């Protein structure tokens, strides 16, 4: 049973932009925190950006000023707008949703590759 569906990854040249989307299934309720993580080959999974139900955001220092996280509560969707992409942004990007009563869910991951 698919709970989170991610899309928007791909190959882009340095300096380009991508927009990631993650939508939760209708069976998921009371979503609190929504976040994006990324994992490069051989490295740990790190937090990229997060957004609370009230709209407060937080970003990793490496993406501040370039990435923007937003959410549409009615659509149960979180977005990650990535601008001025760098080769070091290359990774598999995962969304994570934390709910009040149903625990946390992870997306399947979407590959982002930035060529120099």
Q: Largest sheet, if any? A: 7 strands, mixed
Helix content: under 10%
Order of helices and strands: EEEEEEEEEEE
Distance between the termini: 38 Å
DSSP strand content: over 45%
From the helix content, strand content and strand pairing, which structural class follows?
mainly beta
> Can you tell me the overall shape?
globular
Number of helices: 0
Number of distinct beta strands: 11
| Radius of gyration, CA atoms, in whole angstroms | 14 Å
Round the mean pLDDT to the nearest integer and report it.
95
Low-confidence stretches: none
Describe the protein's architecture and organization:
This protein has 116 residues and is mostly beta strands. It is built from no helices and 11 strands. The chain has strands at residues 4-7, 10-13, 18-24, 31-39, 46-51, 57-59, 67-72, 77-82, 91-99, 104-106, 110-115. Strands 2, 4, 5, 6, 9, 10 and 11 form a 7-stranded mixed sheet that branches. The N and C termini lie far apart (38 Å). The model has no long low-confidence stretch (mean pLDDT 95).
Search tags:
single chain; 116 residues; mainly beta; four-stranded antiparallel sheet; 11 strands
